[in-house]
Design a protein that fits this description.
The protein is an alpha+beta fold and 118 residues long. The protein is 44% helix and 13% strand. It starts with 9 loop residues before the first helix and ends with a strand.
């Protein structure tokens, strides 16, 4: 897969990061979306929706578990970036009921639990 690199000054990079964050995407997905109008199911919003609508309450799971057979991401595709952004998002939004399980990994992936709001 070809890699495209370009330089931004601090102001433009900050704007790009903020725009991506506001769109709840990582920077790579946001650039693809803006350039090619390409959307992806691998977003924080989609992961949260699948968790809330799925059978994840009171069990441990990883992000690939959330997507099941739809999970096609690899490290090269930005799986790590999605994981980092998901972790940061659920940490900033405890009201979602999704919690990181510290000191627990499954296949080197972060583990989460979910408890519905009451």
């Amino acid at each position: 897969m070809p890699t495209v690199r370009f330089a931004l000054n601090d102001e433009y990079y900050t704007r790009l990061e903020n725009d991506a964050q506001n769109a709840k995407m990582n920077v790579q997905d946001y650039i693809r979306f803006k350039l090619f109008n390409e959307t992806t199911i691998f977003t924080v919003d989609e992961a949260v929706r699948r968790i809330k609508e799925g059978n994840f309450e009171n069990i441990e799971f990883t992000l690939p578990d959330v997507y099941g057979d739809d999970w096609t991401m690899s490290r090269e595709d930005g799986a790590g970036a999605l994981g980092k952004y998901f972790f940061n998002y659920i940490t900033d939004h405890p009201e979602l009921g999704i919690r990181f399980v510290p000191d627990r990994l499954i296949k080197r992936r972060a583990v989460y639990t979910y408890k519905k709001e009451e």
